[in-house]
Amino acid sequence: MTLAKTLKLVIGVTIKVRFEGEYQASSATNETLDALEQAQDSLKSEHIICSVANASNPGIPPSSLMTFLQKNSHTSGVVLEDFNSVFSNKFYHSHLDDTLNINSSAVVAAASLVARTLYILASDNNTLSSSALTAINVNVSLVEELMGCLLGCDPGLSCNLVKNYISPTNTCPSHYVGVIPDEPSSTPYLGYVDDVSRFLWNFLADRTSIPRENSSSTCSKGCNNGEVCVRAETEGKGVCVISTTRYVPAYSTRLKFDSEAWIVLPPNSSDPMGMVDPVWTESNWNAIGLRVYTVQNGAYDNLVLLGGMAITVLAYLAIVITRAFITKSLKRD
Predict the structure, then answer these.
(1) What sections of the protein cross the membrane (predicted)?
(2) Contact 230, 165 (CB under 8 A)
(3) 39/118 Cα distance (integer angstroms)
């Protein structure tokens, strides 16, 4: 029996009150839902089912939409999830949340659905090509390779895909958010950027780049305006490509960089996000170490003491017996 991959929709819509007293979703949300339904129909052979979440669903699952809703509760949005009424990942945001909790088939299904939905929304109904729509497919092997490279230590960042773009400093990918030791910039000093961020930037810049006329231009000759250098850490020393991929520094809304220094702004009662936004700093230690000593129990210490005493007594007896034997032998001579 073939099991269908069910993607539930949890919808945050803009509610408008009609004169008749009925509630109606925004036109943008309805258009998105129609595109999702059309994309689902084109994926029937993949057994992908997309349906509205159960009425007992507690609300929006953990997602970036939460941030927008906290700022404006009437923001329209659609969230794709693989559960209906209960959040399925019980190890969410813990050290146990690893690759065993991620279903690559669900990731591929969601990516296929979203890609075709975006194509439908970006196309005019009159120019929408069914053949072009069905030609949009997700590279399954690439998804699995990315999961192996970015979500674990085997192979981790030592995989060929990562080494094709950067020279990683560690094998295990770090999911630590990091700090901003310098001014916020879209072109930061790469020494401050971790392995995962550098790889993702190079990977996205390469995959979203526009081919240039002179594809053999290396970064050593300098890149033109509007171009970026990818694979700069590899042996080929990188090539220039036309891409809009940029680093976007993410920091607290209560922080401001002014006059070469960070300034902590006072909380603003009119800003609900600023009131709950934690502001914290970190030391400039290059490495944090921990030294652990093993303490033996008392029984082991007593055993060592008795063993030492026994060896001492036996050694004394051996010396006495040996001395007596030698003395007796000398008297005979």
Answers:
(1) 303-326
(2) yes
(3) 9
The structure tokens listed for 308 are 């030492």
DSSP track, 134-159: HT----HHHHHHHHHHHSSSSSGGGS
* pLDDT tens column, 181-215: 778 888 888 888 899 999 999 999 999 998 766 65
CB-based contacts of 184, cutoff 8 Å, min separation 6: 249, 251, 257
β-strands 227-230, 239-242: how paired? antiparallel
Name the phi and psi angles at 19, rounded to 5. -65, -25
What's 56-97 look like in SS3?
Answer: CCCCCCCCCHHHHHHHCCCCCEEEEECCCCCCCCCCCCCCCC
Position 180 pLDDT exceeds 70: yes
Q: Tokens at residue 116, please?
A: 């075709």
3-state secondary structure of 132: helix
Contact 241, 224 (CB under 8 A): no
Q: Which of 151-165, 245-259, 264-278 has the lowest mean pLDDT?
A: 264-278
Six-digit token pair at 168?
């990683």
- Residue owning tokens 């694979």: 231
Sign of CA dihedral 321, 327, 332, 333: positive
The structure's pTM equals 0.70
Least-confidence region, from 2-6, 79-83, 199-203: 2-6
Q: Report the distance separating Cα 197 and Cα 200, nearest Å.
A: 5
